[in-house]
Amino acid sequence: MILNSIKSIGIKYKIILTLFINFLVIILIIYLIIIPRIRYIKENGEQIIRRRIFLEEQYIKVKRFMASNKDMNLVDADIQKLDEVFVDYDEDLQFIETLEKVAIDNNINQRISLGSIKNGEVSDFEKIILEISADGNFLNMMNYLINLETLNYYINISSLDIYKPSTYNINDGLLGDESNSLSRVIYKITADTYWR
Fold first, then answer.
1. DSSP class of residue 109?
2. Average of per-residue pLDDT values in the chain
3. Distance CA 106, CA 87 (A)
4. What is the DSSP code string of 77-101?
5. What are phi and psi of 23, to 5 degrees?
6. Which residues are paired to 191 by β-bridges?
7. Architecture label for domain 89-195
8. CA-CA distance, 187 to 147, in Å (whole number)?
9. Residues 6 or more apart in contact with residue 157 via CB below 8 angstroms
């Protein structure tokens, strides 16, 4: 019946009806398929962009963390080196023996005066004054100073007085032979040592 009524319509109306039906189908396809797909693609594109930004931020954070971790390892190595320059409170005798060995190796007479260790203060390290009076041959004294500077301990020399003795020796008072004293010098060293 509908087919019969369509057959009875003229070609002009059939063409218009076909165009109208095609136009309706195209509009339905656009609104039901294409527009939702476009929205879906835009939403996914935005999610992909947000995910990419998030992943880039995480990558930068991980990269900074790894760089910081690497720097921390370098700092830890430096801290261990720094810890080695401190004199331990329980190794004071070893420290003095080291100073004595340097003097003996350089044929130097020395007298060591170490400041008192304060037991009451709580800190990471303590600065203690070290006073050394030494006498000997000038070249030996220079080698002695070089050896003091190359010790594994941090010794900060704050004062260095050099005297040419006449007939004075720090240990026994008199040298006796004045010709021997011409190449001899007396060093009075005041230095800071760091203890923990």
1. E
2. 81
3. 23
4. HHHHHHHHTSBPGGGHHHHHHHHHH
5. -65, -45
6. 130, 157
7. 2-Layer Sandwich (3.30)
8. 14
9. 148, 149, 189, 190, 191
Q: How far apart are CA 1 and CA 130, in angstroms?
A: 122
Length of the chain: 196
Whether the model pTM is above 0.90:
no
The answer to whether 191 and 157 are in contact (CB under 8 A) is yes
Residue 196 tokens, joined: 């923990």
Helix H or strand E segment including 7: helix 2-8
Residue boundaries of the structural domains of the chain: 9-81, 89-195
Backbone angles phi, psi at 153, to 5 degrees: -95, 150
pLDDT tens, residue by residue, 55-78: 999 999 999 998 888 888 777 777
In the numeric block, the tokens 């835009």 are attached to 42
CA dist 53 and 59 (Å) reads 10
